[in-house]
Structures are given as structure tokens and as C-alpha cells.
Design brief:
Strand order of the largest sheet: 1-6-7-8-10-11
Largest sheet: 6 strands, mixed
Number of domains: 2
CATH topology of the largest domain: Rossmann fold
Shape: globular
CATH architecture of the largest domain: 3-Layer(aba) Sandwich
CATH class of the largest domain: Alpha Beta
Order of helices and strands: EHHEEEEHEHEHEEEEHHHHHHH
Structural class: alpha/beta
Radius of gyration: 19 Å
Length: 315
């Protein structure tokens, strides 16, 4: 089961699960009109478009079952599942979130039956953040993951647009699971360094481009990256102030990851809107820039570039 059935899940965790084979996904939504009822496509089907700098690839995908949580809350609670994954946004980790409320009801009703909860949001130690809201329950394990694939908002839910690149790092856990490794996921004992890398490179770069690019009249990440002054600023921000705070990341060359992030961000055909990134800045900016700024100051360095982004974002 996946809670938070938006475009990102459909281009990321759903793809890994389909490629692993042998498992199916039930996806409750908070909305009263499920996207799967729109148009002539069978319920649960959609088209994924991976948009590279010069060409597209497309593939059809399907979710086995969709529910509308607002109309069928008991069906969500009662659904028998072994894994629950989450994409509920950075601001969703609070006691009033109705999806987390359904998760809490569901795990309480399992009476010790094994369950793994995987958070896939841009929140440090996201598994622990989920457990802090849902609470400890016998047989329920909470694990952190890092999910990376740039996915612009789409106005046509049966078609979702994303980039060719995809990364999923999952903390290891006991119990049944799809063969996600076969689909390219990375299983690790500890996800913290990967999370720091992703938040402080990919997400921080995008937040910086949004904070500084919107006042210049730029609409997309690629537009901002085509501005020589902004591209130079973001490159310096990453290499001078953020990379030095990223811990060692097993099997990843962080300098290469920075270069690839800059290339991904410059993709002119992706249409990743800066306004989408700027939304929820009160949650995003402290997570992406607060810890590295503190670390630089503790080392006797003033984070001048970080401070400029934080001031521009007003967060």
C-alpha cells in the first residue's frame, strides 16, 4: 500500500515495484475524485513519460487498486498489506495528517502482524519522523529511504512526466519485499549519508534557483540554469559551501553527483516550475540549509551563499 498517491509515487516507487515483479500496489488517495476515473483509460492505468534533453521514452503502468481515503477510510485500514510506503510531503509529518491517522489506525488493528513502513519524503530520518507520529507498535518497523527523480506537477493525472534519472536508497529490513534491487534500488544499512547528499545537493540547488530565479522572472529550473549568473552562483553554492558538509557516501562520488545534478537541472524539456519548488519553503529551507550552515559556522566559516538563499526565500 502507498499513502500519498501523487505523480512522484507513480514515476518512482511504482516503477521500481513493477520492474521487480511479483507485487502489486494499492493506492489510497485523499481526493474524493480519483485520477483513475478520468478519461477512457481503465482504472489505475497511466502513462509515464521520461523526458530527456532531446527525446522521450514512454511506458504504460498500472496500480492494482485505487481507493479514495475520504470515502473509504475503513477499507484503507482493513487492507491486508506487508509494506506501507509514504509520499506525504515535507509538511505532512504532523499529528493532524489524515493519511497518517489512517496508518496509525491500521497498524493498531494488526495486533502484532509484521509490517514495514517506508517513508520516501524529503525529511531527514524520514522513517523516524513517521514513527514519531504513528507511534511504536509491536511488529511494525519504520525505515528511511531516499527517493530522487525530478517530477514536475502535471495537470493531466493519467499522464505523468519525469526525467530519465532515478535513484532509490532503502534501509535494509527483515520481512517480505519486492526484489527492488533487481530494478536498480540500493539497499543499505544506514540511509543518513545519502539523505544528506540528496537534500544538500539536489533539493538545495533547486530551492536556491527558485528563491533567486523567481524575482528575475524565470519560470522553470532550466530557465534559471540558463541564466549565467544564477548557474555560476548555484555551482559555487554547491561546491564551496554544501559539498564540504556532505558526509562520505558509500559507492558514490559526490563531485560527480554534483555535476550530474547541474546537468539534470538544465534539462530544457522537463518544465520543472520554480513556483512548485518554492511552495512550502517554510518546511524545505530549514531542512536543506539549516544543518550545513550550522556546520560551517561551527568550523569557523560564514555561509555567505547559504545566507543569501535563505534571505531571498524569506524562510
Amino acid at each position: 500500500m502507498h499513502l500519498g498517491l501523487g505523480a512522484f509515487h507513480r514515476v518512482h516507487q511504482a516503477v521500481y515495484t513493477a520492474d521487480a515483479g511479483g507485487w502489486e500496489i494499492c493506492g489510497p488517495r485523499g481526493a474524493r475524485v480519483p485520477w483513475s476515473t478520468r478519461g477512457a483509460a481503465p482504472a489505475g492505468t497511466y502513462t509515464l513519460v521520461a523526458r530527456g534533453p532531446s527525446s522521450d521514452t514512454t511506458r504504460p503502468l498500472r496500480l492494482a487498486e485505487t481507493l479514495v481515503a475520504a470515502d473509504e477510510p475503513q477499507a484503507v485500514v482493513d487492507r491486508d498489506t506487508q509494506i506501507v510506503s509514504l509520499t506525504i510531503t515535507e509538511g505532512g509529518y504532523e499529528a493532524g495528517n489524515p493519511l497518517l491517522g489512517l496508518l496509525a489506525r491500521g497498524v493498531a488493528a494488526r495486533d502484532g502482524a509484521p509490517l514495514t513502513v517506508l517513508s520516501c519524503d524529503n525529511v531527514p530520518r524520514n522513517g523516524e519522523a513517521a514513527r514519531a507520529i504513528v507511534g511504536d507498535h509491536a511488529g511494525v518497523a519504520f525505515r528511511s529511504t531516499i527517493a530522487d527523480r525530478i517530477t514536475p506537477h502535471t495537470d493531466d493525472p493519467p499522464v505523468v512526466v519525469t526525467e530519465p534519472f532515478s535513484l532509490w536508497v532503502i534501509e535494509d529490513f527483515d520481512g517480505a519485499r519486492p526484489s527492488w534491487e533487481r530494478a536498480g534500488a540500493v539497499i543499505v544499512p544506514e540511509a543518513t549519508p545519502y539523505a544528506a547528499m540528496k537534500l544538500r545537493i539536489v533539493n538545495a540547488a533547486h530551492s536556491a534557483l527558485a528563491a533567486l530565479g523567481l524575482p528575475r522572472g524565470h519560470e522553470t529550473v532550466a530557465d534559471a540554469m540558463a541564466d549565467p549568473e544564477l548557474r555560476d552562483f548555484v555551482t559555487r553554492l554547491l561546491r564551496e559551501e554544501l559539498v564540504p558538509t556532505v558526509p562520505d557516501v558509500p559507492d558514490i562520488d559526490v563531485d560527480d553527483f554534483v555535476s550530474r545534478t547541474l546537468e539534470r537541472s538544465a534539462n530544457p524539456r522537463l518544465g520543472h516550475r520554480l513556483a512548485q519548488i518554492a511552495a512550502g519553503a517554510e518546511h524545505k529551507i530549514p531542512q536543506r540549509f539549516g544543518p550545513p550552515a550550522c556546520e560551517l559556522r561551527a568550523a569557523g566559516r560564514e555561509p555567505a551563499l547559504i545566507d543569501r538563499v535563505v534571505a531571498a526565500a524569506g524562510a
